[in-house]
Amino acid sequence: MTTHAKLLDLLAEPPAEPDFAAGYLNLLGAEVQAGPPTGLVQRLMRTNLVPMVYERWWRPALGRVIKGPTGPSMAEEHDIAVRLLRLKPGGVALDVACGTGGFTRRFGVEVGPTGLAVGLDASAPMLERAVAATPAGSPVGYLRADAVRPPLRESVVDAVCCFAALHMFAEPTVALTSFARVLKPGGRLALLTSARESWEPARTVQTAMGWASGQRMFARDEVRNLLTERGFTDIEVRFAGATQFVGATAT
After folding, report:
1. Membrane-spanning regions, if any (predicted)?
2. What is the pTM of this model?
3. Phi/psi of residue 167, each to 5°?
């Protein structure tokens, strides 16, 4: 089965005439984005400039500021994601808000030729860069769709990764519910998202900065509680600056 065929097989409602013209499956057509806008940062992701510098400059630099000087590097983030997801050869991994596909390509290596790594994003410029950077023949497919409501069948993927995006969603709690829906029982979830620091002056500043940029600043126990409410178990959390890395198992 080809990568495109594998991708179509995951969908709840495969289109009668799949649009792979740009190298990814486009389920949004001419729509600029999926769902309501949340602020400046999200809008920048749809421009042509940010995707050009995203993987090499934008994401590492912004991450360093938010994670703090002792936070993990981008290479270490990749390793953290792989560890939290517990990927195995032949598995299916969904990389939500995949951007230019750096993590998706790594997941493709981990699941191997019999598996599939799916990069999902709503930004056409981001996906164009992701497709261009992915070697031909890789077990990697890209999907332009709503990240909050991935259009996949229930219990169809082994792992869901959502790094550096949940806090930019207009409906983050709906997204977590969606992740629980598409994961197989025992499947793994990995998140990198915001976490307000416990020191009150810093909390106030971080909340204000999040509001100004359209990003939600989660309280330090908020994401854990939301996952518990959705039946996730084996939850582990690691904080780094104003961020948190979260791993959990679906039931």
Report:
1. none
2. 0.89
3. -70, -10
